[in-house]
Inverse folding.
């Protein structure tokens, strides 16, 4: 059997600025501290849906994480705060423990049944349309939408104008 390395080579730290609380948490270095720091830093870009898995905010909707990118992002955060290359926090076991803690953290998790609740909202590349009023709004992660059409709504289309006119008269 070969010698087991006691530490890993640290990759260059990213230029991403982090707040003091995240820095302090990462200096603790245990799974709980890393999970708390990750939730603070990524609560707008990652969400765990109980019964639906991990989803990443794609700028317009919550996209299912099909490639386990969540583990890579946990790993990257841990790397950034591991200047000594400590092997304990650079293992799949460590990252998996952080991921499991995050799945139970209410800051970054929701029940999957809360996703896609409003069936009158249509998420399109150019915004979210309320099918009852015809109004368009900006994409919003708090709406917990996981599906998007492939094409924007054509505001000039006669059918769209008819729906909008009908809703204005109400």
């Amino acid at each position: 059997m070969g010698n087991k390395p006691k530490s890993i080579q640290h990759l260059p730290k990213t230029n991403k600025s982090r707040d003091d609380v995240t820095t302090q948490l990462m200096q603790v270095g245990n799974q709980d501290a890393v999970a708390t720091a990750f939730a603070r830093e990524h609560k707008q870009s990652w969400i765990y849906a109980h019964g639906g898995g991990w989803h990443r905010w794609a700028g317009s909707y919550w996209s299912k994480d099909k490639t386990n990118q969540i583990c890579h992002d946990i790993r990257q955060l841990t790397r950034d705060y591991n200047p000594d290359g400590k092997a304990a926090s650079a293992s799949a076991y460590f990252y998996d423990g952080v991921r499991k803690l995050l799945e139970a953290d209410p800051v970054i998790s929701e029940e999957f049944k809360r996703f896609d609740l409003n069936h009158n909202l249509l998420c399109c590349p150019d915004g979210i349309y309320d099918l009852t009023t015809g109004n368009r709004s900006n994409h919003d992660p708090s709406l917990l939408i996981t599906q998007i059409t492939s094409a924007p709504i054509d505001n000039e289309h006669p059918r769209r104008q008819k729906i909008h006119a009908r809703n204005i008269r109400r």
Observations:
- The beta strands are 46-50, 53-57, 62-64, 109-111, 121-124, 127-130, 136-137.
- Residues 81 and 143 are 33 Å apart (CA to CA).
- The two ends are 78 Å apart (CA to CA).
